[in-house]
Structures are given as C-alpha cells and as structure tokens.
Design brief:
Blueprint lengths: L4 H9 L1 E2 L8 H7 L4 E4 L7 H18 L3 E7 H11 L8 H4 L14 H15 L9 E6 L3 H15 L1 H11 L9 H9 L7 H13 L1 H5 L3 H27 L4 H23 L8 E4 L2 H4 L15 H9 L3 E15 L8 E5 L7 H7 L4 E5 L4 H6 L4 E4 L10 H5 E4 L1 H4 L2 E8 L9 H5 L11
Helix pairs in contact: 3-6, 7-8, 7-12, 8-10, 9-12, 10-12, 12-13
C-alpha cells in the first residue's frame, strides 16, 4: 500500500459505503438544519448516482423534514409527476406520470431508478395526512417553451376564458415555427423574424396582475395551480430569451439558464414556505450546475451556476454534494437527439480526482470535505475532474469531458463509486441492450 500522504488523508476521512442503512449518517450530520441539499451527478446516465440520490433524499424527507425535490427537468413535465405523487392526477402508475418526458434525452428521467423513486414518493405521501405535508416534485429547467404555452392556456381556459383569448393571440407569435423552438431562436437571434419578447412579457405581467383574483377561487390547491401557471409564463419569457441567445455564445446562454433555475428554486422555496417553517428542498442536477463554479474553470470563462448562486445567497444553509466514478458504463448519446447507447466509460485520466480516488483502493465512499481539514488541504490544488452530460465522446475524452477544479471549494462532500453501470431507460432498445464492445487499445488521450 502506498504511503502517499494525499491517499492516506482521503482514506482517513472517507466513510466506506457498504450498503448499510446508516451509510449516509455522516452526510445527514453535515446537513444539520440546512434548507437546501444539492445532490449532483458526474453524468446524466449512471445508475449508482440516481440510486444514491434517491436513497439520501428518502432519508432527508423522513428524518429531516425536507418537503420538495427539484430536478434538472422542465417545469410542466415534472409537474405532472408532482400531481401524481400528491394523489391529484388521473395517472394510475408512476410510469404514466413520467409520460410527459418525451424530449431528448428521455432516459434522463424515464429510467428505472426514477420510476422506483416516484413510486416510493407516492407511497410516502399516501401515508401523510394534510396537503401541506406531502412532498412535491418539481422541475427547474426552461426548455419546454411549447409545453408551457399549452399549460398556461389550459389554466386560463378554466379560470378566465377572456384572458385565455388574449394569451392565445400573444403566443401566436411563435406559430410559424411549430414545435421547433430552436428554429425560432435562430431566426429571431439573427434578425430574420421579429422576436416575441414583448408578447411573452405582456402575458407574464397580466397573469401576475390577476394572481390575487385567481388565488381566491378555491383555497390551497388553487394557489398551487396558479403558481404552476405563473411559473410556466415566467418560463416562456426566459425560454424565449434563451433560444435567442443560444446561437450567440455559450457563456450568455449558460448563465441565463442557470440564473433562471436558481430563480425558479427561490420562487419554489418562497411558495412552499408561505405557511409554517421555511421549506427544505433537495435539488438533483449535474455536478456542473451544482458544484460552485467559482472553484472551476467556469469562472475564468465568465460562467456561473446554481451552486454558486445558492452558496452566495444561503451560505452554510446549503450543502453541495458531488459524485464521481472511475470507469464502467453510461447511458449517453453520440450527438444531440441521437439514440441512447450503453457506452463504455474509459478509466479516468491520470492527474484527475477520479484516478486519485481509484488509487485509494476503496470501491465506494463518502468524503465529507467540509468536515475534514486534512483531506481538504491535500485536495486544495486544482486537478482534473470529469463531466459526462447526455453526450459522451470518449475519442476526445480530455477536451470534451475534463476541466480543472478545486474539489474542497467546489463541494462540501463527494461520493465516489469506482465502478458504475449505465442507468436503465424505460424504453430499452436493441441498440442499448447491445451496448459498446469494451475498448482494447491504450487510453489516456
């Protein structure tokens, strides 16, 4: 066994994950009375990350009184799940409740681990008395421009048909582009068509102006439905801007998206906290969104993220947790909108935190960085860290998937699984089942 002091410090500070019920006790101790628990992932397609987040979230709900799960998903798609887990929808099964996740990448939320968690959340809520005590499920993202338009119109059709008529007129600005929001963004961004900025802003303002009138209609449930509609109108305004800026540069569109997700998290927290104690929310997103951007290369590019904004606003009232893996398989695509593959994850590059964790010889562990000054000191220098999104390109591994980060400043804790396997899509194709053949040539490029 090597006498490397960094490895020794990590082993001394780490808690081995053995599958026992108390594996995450140190993490719950770290949470304390914090109102926000941010649980990341190093890929959008790894079973162990989803399973661990679900396990930790269950304990936070049952033992620490967390009242909502907010995820990197579109608001209206996730709200269908919210209605199901609260027992307020026509969906009979968790599979049906996940039915609105039709946009690429469908496996990100239509997978076996999320299905199990949504089923558990419904069972938990069924045992809870009182609407306010049931745990909700919400989306923070802004891609669902057309779906959100339909949601606003359906809400207004029920509560204010005349307002619905005005909303249809305003939103007809997008009609020439059908369901293709990116085509609208390209045309508007390059001045090929007039933007819909004024129309979506007017609609949001009108809905907000009439909010008190709509909220008086039928108690708490009506307030939630109003909040759902208002958030959809806010999403449309931000999505319109996002699609216009996405062709103008990565930094501006990235920052707009993460600011929006943070603002949605704040709006959700305020909505859920309006009676009783402040709400406690678990957030599930990628490491790149939830690890503090100031501790990574993102800062030098002028990028921020949700983790940074939450820390700046709430300090120790938020706990940021990252996930890492050394090798295994992952569900990912070769390109945007391409089919899902079960791809081989190359062993982590030398000089990366994943390779360092692999050298400890511990198969899976929790490393509380905030609580371990010694481990944090040895990990304080920038080192490579891997990020796999919905696309994985191992042929350009270093350029496409690695960046430098100071781990103790990025996260309060890290959970490492040395060998991981691909998350299982609910729609398993022959292509996914076949998977990739393991690579036999040397890696490290």
């Amino acid at each position: 066994m090597t006498s490397n002091p960094t490895l020794s410090a990590i082993r001394d500070a780490a808690f081995t994950l053995s599958g026992a019920a108390d594996d995450y006790d140190p993490l719950l101790d770290l949470v304390g009375d914090a109102r926000f628990m941010l649980l990341g992932e190093a890929s959008h397609g790894t079973h162990e990350f989803y399973r661990a987040r679900a396990e930790i979230t269950r304990r936070l709900i049952e033992e620490r009184g967390f009242t909502a799960v907010a995820v990197e998903a579109d608001w209206p798609d996730a709200y269908r799940v919210n209605r199901f887990v609260r027992g307020m929808s026509e969906d009979v099964t968790a599979n049906e409740a996940l039915g609105d996740f039709l946009r690429f990448p469908t496996w990100m939320w239509r997978n076996a681990d999320v299905l199990d968690f949504v089923g558990w959340l419904r069972e938990h809520n069924d045992r809870v008395t009182g609407y306010e005590r049931k745990v909700g499920f919400y989306g923070l993202d802004l891609y669902s421009l057309n779906h959100s338009i339909q949601a606003v119109l359906e809400y207004l059709d029920k509560v204010d048909p005349e307002a619905a008529r005005r909303a249809r007129y305003r939103y007809s600005c997008f009609d020439d582009f059908g369901e293709d929001a990116q085509a609208y963004g390209y045309a508007a961004g390059f001045g090929l068509t007039q933007s819909c900025e004024r129309e979506v802003l007017e609609q949001l303002i009108e809905l907000q102006r009439k909010a008190s009138e709509y909220a008086r209609m039928d108690g708490r449930v009506a307030e939630d439905e109003l909040f759902f509609a208002e958030q959809n109108a806010r999403l449309i305004k931000n999505a319109e801007q996002y699609y216009r800026t996405m062709f103008g540069g990565r930094v501006s569109s990235w920052n707009l998206r993460d600011r929006y997700m943070f603002q949605t998290l704040e709006a959700l927290h305020a909505h859920l906290s309006r009676v009783g104690q402040p709400a406690k929310i678990v957030v599930w997103e990628h490491n790149s969104h939830l690890g503090d951007a100031r501790a990574t290369e993102m800062r030098t590019r002028g990028e921020l993220n949700v983790g940074q904004l939450v820390r700046e606003r709430y300090g120790r009232d938020a706990v940021l947790v990252g996930f890492t893996t050394y090798a295994g398989t992952v569900t990912a695509a070769n390109d945007w909108d391409a089919p899902a593959d079960r791809k081989q994850v190359r062993p982590a590059l030398p000089g990366s935190c994943e390779a360092l964790f692999h050298e400890t010889g511990v198969a899976q562990f929790l490393l509380p960085l905030r609580a371990s000054e010694t481990a944090s000191k040895y990990l304080s220098e920038p080192q490579l860290e891997r990020a796999i999104g919905v696309i994985y390109r191992p042929e350009s591994e270093r350029i496409s998937h690695y960046f430098y980060a100071r781990l103790p400043d990025q996260f309060d804790a890290v959970i490492h699984f040395d060998q991981t396997r691909a998350v299982e899509p609910l729609e398993r194709t022959a292509r996914w089942e076949r998977g990739e053949l393991p690579e036999t040539y040397p890696v490290g490029v």
